[in-house]
Amino acid sequence: MLGEQHDLIHEFPDYELKIADLREGNPPFATMMDQYDDLDARVRKLEELGTPVADETIEELK
User: Fold this and answer.
1) Higher confidence at residue 3 or residue 57?
2) pLDDT for residue 38 is more than 60
């Protein structure tokens, strides 16, 4: 849905502690999670601003 957060904690709330442990103890995981969170924020911002973007572009970002 428009403007929804899709970060890992929101997508997998049952694994919040495990995700936090992985982020803290696994630098490659933390890097990928940061990249994923940044991308989610970019997509959400485009959706919320109503920026005209082709569906294919949004799907490619996702």
Assistant:
1) 57
2) yes
Extents of the domains making up the chain: 8-61
- Check: CB of residue 30 under 8 Å from CB of residue 24: yes
57 vs 14: CA distance, rounded Å? 31
First to last CA, the chain: 13
Cα separation, 19 vs 38, in Å, equals: 17
In order, the DSSP letters of 20-54 are HHHHHH-HHHHHHHHHHHHHHHHHHHHHHHT----
Residue 20 pLDDT grade (very low, low, confident, very high; cuts 50, 70, 90): very high
